[in-house]
Amino acid sequence: MKKKIVITGGLGYIGTEICKLYSGVSWHHQIIVIDNRFISERVNQIRNWNMEFVQGDILDKNLLDKYLKDAGRFWKDGERALLNIDRKEKTCASDYEKIQVWNYLAYTYYSLDDFKKAIVYYEYIVNSPGEDDAFRLDTRRTLAQFYAQQERYLEAITQYEIWEAQAFSVGASDRLMMAQLYNVLEKKDQALEMTKIGIADAELKGEVPKEGFWQIQFPIYYDRSEFKKVGEILEKLVEHYPKWSYWKQLGGMYGMQERDLDQLVAYEVVYLNGELKSESDIKNIAGFYQGADVPYRAAKIIEAGIEDEILEETSDNYKLLADSWYQAYELRSALQSYEKASKLSDSGEIQFRIASIYLDLGEDKNAYRASLLAEKKGAGKHKAANYNKMGMALTNMYCCLLYTSDAADEGLGVDLGGRRII
To answer: Which of 202, 212, 354, 421 could be joined to 370 by an S-S link, Cβ 3.0–4.6 Å?
Structure first.
């Protein structure tokens, strides 16, 4: 099958050598050579090999779209060609020529996803004789990134430090990478210093610092119990990168600093946007409102949590809802929730609470019935108080009469240790 092969930079040293390698197959495939120069001797040779020459710049998108369309990428062919050049001492004699070939080989192996071999050739470049020029210095940066990708973190930061010391400028992405490497290597002070420089550089330019700088700072300061600093970092994060997870963490930090109102506001922001989705989240924010003496809001949140099926319909959850309604003096709503809680519980303590509310509402008959049910289920620690509620209800209804047990109507009264209330 006929291939379409495009060689860019075909008049340069490596390009010329690759053209030579392909000269044996150019009669069977379509080979196009692109270069922004025109050297008549080399162009004539290319044409004699039955290759098409195009003078143009590879930065010209229209030119690339025209000639690279339907062209394959033959990385293995490129690897063989470059290795062949590298082996020929006469062809690849100078340090400059070797470095160029190694650079192409490294990129080829990178394109083949063979990172270990790519690293080998980048190492050849940085370890070759001579001082670090701009090209070799930039290669150190590339090699550092490859080391990091292979989890060779100490070697990565070593190359980065050499590069940083000589680089004309260091961008935010590189400072962030260095901070991450220091952090992984447990060099927390260096990590913090690098993040501070990165943040300061961005702010000096009027730019928003990268989120990652603050993400690195957050756990370091937290582990050092510098919670005020953690709060300040989270305030920056919610300002520039307003994620709900940051708002929740900020609320937690406010709580640790006893800034209760700020904590409540932070959680309310998250809740209003529907981002509190777990049972613990709902109970936490309800607890914050109860602590702030706003039980009505707590009740509404718990009620919505049950309706939205975030909170299960359990006795404990309905009791939590009822307690909030009761604290808000919403007695009817409290009664409804306590009744639901009682149906799901074997304890008589909830019925005791129901009896108390009926008494507060002046519904003595219902209070008496509730106290009887509490007695039947077992009022626990409220046993004596439950008898008191029962007596109060009866007093309000009938002006309670006390009889000895033998005078009582077994069907209408309840035994109070030798006496019976009817």
So the answer is: 354
DSSP bridge pairs for 53: 33
> What does the buried/exposed string (b/e) look like for 370-398 if buried means 16 or more CB atoms within 10 Å of the residue's CB?
bbbbbbebebeebeeebbebbbbbbebee
Q: Inform me whether the pLDDT recorded for 320 exceeds 60.
A: yes
Counting every residue written for the chain, the total comes to 422
Give yes or no for a contact between 345 and 318, defined as CB atoms under 8 angstroms apart.
no
More confident position, 82 or 248:
248
pLDDT on residue 232: 95
- What residues contact residue 149 under an 8 Å CB cut-off, 6+ apart? 115
Q: Quick check: 110 and 128 in contact, CB under 8 A?
A: no
What is the rounded distance in angstroms from the CA atom of residue 44 to the CA atom of residue 51? 10
pTM: 0.67
Torsion of CA 317, 319, 323, 328, to 10 degrees: 70
Helix (H/G/I), strand (E/B), else coil: 257: coil
- Residues sharing a CB contact under 8 Å with residue 6, sequence separation 6 or more, in sequence order: 31, 32, 33, 34, 67, 68, 71
Block residue for tokens 């010329």: 16
- Predicted pLDDT of residue 78: 67
- Cα-flanking dihedrals φ and ψ of residue 391, to 5°? -65, -40
Distance CA 153, CA 86 (A): 30
DSSP E strand boundaries for 297-418: 402-404, 414-415
